[in-house]
Each structure stands twice: as structure tokens, then as C-alpha cells.
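Our preliminary data section would be incomplete without showing what the modeling component actually yields. Below, a chain of 206 amino acids is followed by its predicted structure, encoded as C-alpha cells that our downstream tools consume directly.
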Amino acid sequence: MIFQQGQRIVFIGDSITDCGRRDHAAPYGDGYMSLVRAFVTAAHPELGLTWANRGVSGDTVRDLARRWEADAVAERPDWLSVKIGINDVWRLFGDRADEAVPLDEYAATLRTLLTRAVDATGCRLILADPYVIEADRAEPQRALTARYAEVVAGLAADFDALHVRTQDAFDEVLKTTTSQDWAPDRIHPNLPGHAIIARQYLALLG
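Predicted structure:
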């Protein structure tokens, strides 16, 4: 287990992280973050870890930048998990294309935010890929999302962060299942879909 006694773990991101943490499922949501917390706590209650969910549905990296000081830096995490990018791409394929975040802006903004958090708090990072639960790698949204995931992989290497390869995890189960088995819209997972993400985290955490 990489976490140490008394550490604080903060998760930040979009709706996949949010998962009702501000209303019906406060304070941790009912998605992957809650599952990770539950299994880590059950396995290591002696560590006395504290947890915070700061996901906000609909967020892009631009939205993260607006609330970074309050929701990331001020939380003083020992570990900061960041999962962002799905909306940055998805908006391009809907009726809000003007809100999509170009790849170069996504990369530059995310690097700036991560640098600020590490410099201000000394936290370690956990970076999770954006994904689309889609087996066809040539499908336009899936193909573009892969380029954003490459940015995350590069940042994970640069910051010596744990890298949660969520797309790889879904690709593996899609060998024998369909997208609809995990999410009605290829994005927002059902509970088994969130368990797929959580398992990727738990494998890295030990």
C-alpha cells in the first residue's frame, strides 16, 4: 500500500468523479472514488486516511482552473487524483462545440495546474486517462480521446505520477462485452463500470 499513516487523498475531476457527491450520495459520491475509498479503508483501517471528493459534473480543464486553488491546493492533499478530459473532447461532438478544449490548451492548462498543486503542497499525483467505452478505435470521438490520454501519459511520466489507464481497462472488457454493458452513453458508467475504474486504481495502490 503506497498510502501512509494519516495521509489525505483528494479526488478531483468531472461527473465520473462527482457521482452525486454534492447531493444524493454526499460526500463521496457513488462511483469509483467511493469504491476505492471503501476497499482501501477496509484493507487498511489502521492508516487513518482522510478522503475528499471534489468532482464537479460537466467540468473541463478550464473549469478545474477556475476552482483549483479552493478545491485542490487548499485541500492540502498528500495524494491528488486528477481525472479530467472527457468533456474537453465530448463537447466537440455535441451541441456545445464552442466549449470543447483544444488539445494544446488541455495539455498546457493541465500541466500548469499540476505544477501549482505539487509546488504548493508537495503532493504526489495520480493521473487517470479520459476514455470512451467504445471498441472501435477509429471512431472519431474514441480516436480523439486517445490523443488526450497521450497527454496524460506524458504528464504522468514528467511528474512521476501513478498513471491509471482507464481506457485500457475498458478495452479489455470490451473484448467480450458491449459498451452498453458498462454505460448507456459510452461515458457515464453503471456500478460495474465504476468498478472497472476502481480496480485500475487499486492495482496501482497495492
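The mean pLDDT is 97. The domain at 8-205 is CATH 3.40.50.1110 (Rossmann fold). Preliminary results of this kind motivate Aim 1 of the renewal.
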